[in-house]
Amino acid sequence: GVREVISEKDKILVSLDSHHSNILPFTERYSEQVVVTEDILGEFKRDKEAVKIVALTGLSNVSGEEQNELVRELRESGYGGAILVDAAQLVAHRRIDVKKMDVDFLVFSGHKMGAPMGVGILYIRREWMGKIAPLNYGGEMVEGVEYQNGAIKSEFAFGPQKFEGGTINMGGVAGLSAAIDFWQDHNKDDKLFGVVEELTSFLKEQIGKIEDAEMYYAKNGIVLLNIKGVHAHDTAQILSNYGVMVRAGWHCAEPFLTEKKIGPAVRVSLMFYNTKNELKYLTSILKKVRSEMGL
Asked: Which of 23, 201, 221, 286 has the fewest CB atoms within 10 Å around its CB?
């Protein structure tokens, strides 16, 4: 999509804590022009003229850290290029206002806020819609397709339709719309966000009491940990045996977890429907993990 707006000498910066889905589309298409770094602001200041696109994670899916302040700092430092924010993890933890955020692109997956899988949102600032090419082609995305002297000449539709080639997942869109309505109706005054923050603090305190637990991050509904001497997948399987669902492994953030010398880990993802009793039960099983492994 963005090849027309960058030259071979230009750079694309991607934050190290990004999900693979925010890293690979750039590294696989633009290879040596991409710099994956933890110091986005410093990298920009070192080569201001070359940086044309910055891709950030709005909220890390392994650390729970936000990067909204980084967008402001980039703009205040004179960066006028495109900013893309992967808001997949952010959308269920903060209100999103693309005008206040001052971003050019913003994406998120619908299932992160309770919608069906396979549907999501791509926001593009209007001035960018005419500059970039679509990645997928199909029906409904063109104003016309002419056949002249044995050749095809097409004219793309302007606006979002240009990027919606083919049949739309209408069932998924309807589900996403319903999920957005739910949040609008039930999250007045950020009540649901507050519930998740309270649960995160509670779980952080509970896990902190477990002698064999190594807790790396606990913020914004994300708690990342391991049990000493036990592989993350074994911990997750034992929890599953007791009816507790967690994720284990690299969490599609292998560069970040490698750089931080953490490796595969167990992630507890909290949502407003979780309860403190559930978290007490979770911690009671975590205490058993080493003994279940015969350690």
From this structure: 201
Q: Residue 214: how many CB atoms within 10 A of its CB?
A: 15
Q: Please give the sequence-ordered ranges of beta strands (E in DSSP) within 98-209, or none if there are none.
A: 105-109, 120-124, 142-148, 151-156
Sign of the alpha-carbon torsion through 268, 271, 276, 277 = negative
Distances (CA, A) of 114 to 21, 50, 180, 200: 20, 39, 9, 19
Question: Average pLDDT for residues 155-165, to the nearest whole number?
Answer: 90
Judge if 86 and 194 occupy the same domain: no
Are 6 and 53 spatial neighbours (Cβ–Cβ below 8 Å)?
A: yes
Domain count for the chain, please give it. 2
- Please give the residue range of the domain that contains residue 144: 3-186
**Whether residue 149 is found in the same domain as residue 208:** no
Which of the residues 157, 252, 271, 285 is marked catalytic? 252
Residues 221 and 141 reside in one and the same domain: no
Active site residue 252: yes
CA 94 – CA 290 distance, rounded (Å): 36
Close Cβ partners of 229 (under 8 Å, ≥ 6 residues apart): 212, 290, 293, 295
Please report where in the chains the tokens 């290029």 appear, as a residue: 81
Could you tell me if 14 and 26 are in contact, meaning their C-beta atoms sit under 8 angstroms apart? yes
> pLDDT by residue (tens digit) across 235-281?
999 999 999 999 999 999 999 999 999 999 999 999 999 999 999 99
Residue that finishes a domain, picked among 186, 213, 243: 186
